[in-house]
Amino acid sequence: MNSLDGKIALVTGGSRGAGRAIAVELAKAGATVYVTGRSVKSGSTLGYPGTIDDTAAEIQSFGGTAFAVRCDHTDDEQTASVIRRIQQEQGQLDILVNNVWGGNELSIEQKPFWELPMQHWDHMFQAGVRAQLATNRFAIPLMREKQSGLIVHTTFWDDHKYIGNFYYDLAKNALNRMAFGLATELRQDNIAVVAVSPGWMRTELVLAAFHTDEENWHTVPELGQTESPHYVGRAIVALSSDPQVGAKSGHILRVGELAEEYGFTDIDGRKIPAFHV
Predict the structure, then answer these.
(1) Within a domain: 119
(2) Residue 161's domain spans which residues?
(3) Which residues are registered as beta bridge partners of 101?
(4) What is the pLDDT, as a whole number, of residue 105?
(5) CB 58 within 8 A of CB 14
(6) Residues sharing a CB contact under 8 Å with residue 138, sequence separation 6 or more, in sequence order
(7) Could you please report the per-residue DSSP string of 171-231?
(8) What pLDDT sits at residue 158?
């Protein structure tokens, strides 16, 4: 029996990268997964590889259950519509993974704040922080009906160290604080809220930047300490399967440390330590 049989999950921003891998790992563990994003088979955002339809098809290929739902999470009505659909079709939502992120539309440059374009605010806060906040706003009432559940925000954290890009640092810390505040408000409802921080992931875009792929990344010395996006997916499965996850509510959790605690590995069998800036 899979650990998440009977559980309903929503993964936002699931076309590629961490979102896609998280959806796949949740489905492998038995969850029914709804995957949202703007990239569909008729057109991908900015021409990037991967769509929500690809993610759902991968899950279905191994017998999992997945539904691809196109959603621009900057539009509240589209976000609310996704939650209404889950309520109508499933009657519950057990796991919400807030992974939607608009920050990739500009390069994350290591420049002083006053030299960075202010469009970063719109991309990271409107299409990232606010999009995740709105998903919580519409999903929490459904989760409260069951008086249980897990909300995860994917983030970045390295013991208060400055990440290097002002907007990125500000946005990720806003997500961390959102998890803390929601954990406080939802404690009486038995809904845990955590922020989960992966390391440097070999996403499709990272691999393309180094002119390699998942089969050959070992030949690129700079990628030696990277992890696959499935590593964070396995971390979220472990958290979702833990009956005592409420003890972690409100915390920022690093994937490398969760691997040591729960005993999972990356797809190549390694336990990659927590990433440091």
Answers:
(1) yes
(2) 8-197+229-262
(3) none
(4) 64
(5) no
(6) 76, 79, 80, 82, 83
(7) HHHHHHHHHHHHHHHHGGGTEEEEEEE--SB--HHHHHHTT--TTTGGG-GGGTT-B-HHH
(8) 83
Torsion of CA 254, 260, 263, 269, to 10 degrees: 80
Could you give phi then psi for residue 67, rounded to 5 degrees? -130, 125
| Residue 205 domain flag | no
Identify the active-site residue in 34, 167, 168, 231.
Answer: 168
Structure tokens at 38: 């703007």
Side chain identity at residue 114, one-letter code: W
Domain of 113, CATH number, reads 3.40.50.720
In sequence order, what are the residues at sequence separation of 6 or more whose Cβ sits closer than 8 angstroms to the Cβ of residue 246?
187, 190, 192
Tokens of 127: 């299409």
For this structure, is 168 an active site residue?
A: yes
Look at residue 63 and tell me if it is in a domain.
Answer: yes
Q: Which long-range contacts (CB under 8 A, 24 or more apart) does 218-225 make?
A: 225/199, 225/200, 225/272, 225/275
Phi, psi angles (nearest 5°) of residue 200: -80, 110
What is the Cα–Cα distance from 228 to 268, expressed in whole angstroms?
Answer: 9
CA–CA separation, 63 and 157 (whole Å): 35
Question: Which parts of the chain have pLDDT scores under 50?
Answer: none
CB-based contact 98:153 (threshold 8 Å):
yes
- By CB neighbour count within 10 A (0-12 exposed, 13-18 middle, 19+ buried), where does 266 fall? buried
Tokens of 196: 């989960």
The total number of structural domains in the chain stands at 1
Tokens 């970063």 sit on residue? 120
pLDDT confidence of residue 106: 63
